[in-house]
């Protein structure tokens, strides 16, 4: 179930058993959007992503920051947006696979999911579609979606 909050997804409302999810691209590019905040707070997430790049679409890099925090870098963006091509970078099917992987590992546990409106910034996805994928894939988990003020 999705709960909407005003705030910063890098400052989850709980300090216990939290997974911060975000979308990354399949080219190994890191440096714009939400990943800037992730790098600032949890540099280990960027290091791991770069060590595993390029990542195949539909895969997730889980980085254990400490006993209460995991960063889930979900590869659901193909390349980056190029206005001259006008191709949607977000791959909904890849996002669904990533979220299903997370659900398979953590569903039924005490871990909660925290995220911005994933895939709807630089990846140019549509929130109504992303929201439906989250609701279906993570239906048995508490999901907190943060909107900056």
Task: Explain what this protein looks like in three dimensions.
This protein is an alpha/beta fold. Helix content is 30%, strand content 26%. The protein has 4 helices and 6 strands, in the order ββααββαβαβ. It has helices at residues 34-41, 43-52, 92-106, 127-137, and strands spanning 2-6, 18-25, 60-66, 69-77, 112-115, 143-147.
Throw out a few tags for this protein.
26% strand, single chain, 4 helices, alpha/beta, 149 residues, globular, 6-stranded mixed sheet
SSE pattern: EEHHEEHEHE
Shape: globular
Number of helices: 4
How much of the residues is beta strand, in percent?
25-35%
Low-confidence stretches: none
* Major sheet: arrangement of strands: 1-6-5-2-4-3
Largest sheet: 6 strands, mixed
- Helix percent reads 25-40%
């Amino acid at each position: 179930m999705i709960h909407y909050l005003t705030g910063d997804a890098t400052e989850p409302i709980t300090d216990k058993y939290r997974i911060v999810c975000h979308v990354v691209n399949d080219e190994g590019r890191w440096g714009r959007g939400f990943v800037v905040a992730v790098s600032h707070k949890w540099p280990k997430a960027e290091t791991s992503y770069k060590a595993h790049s390029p990542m195949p679409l539909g895969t997730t890099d889980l980085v254990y920051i400490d006993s209460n925090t995991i960063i889930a870098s979900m590869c659901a963006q193909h390349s980056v947006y190029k206005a001259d091509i006008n191709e949607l970078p977000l791959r909904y099917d890849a996002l669904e696979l990533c979220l299903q992987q997370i659900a398979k590992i953590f569903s039924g546990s005490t871990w909660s999911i925290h995220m911005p409106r994933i895939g709807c910034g630089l990846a140019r996805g549509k929130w109504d579609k992303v929201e439906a994928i989250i609701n279906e894939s993570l239906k048995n988990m508490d999901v907190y979606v943060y909107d900056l003020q």
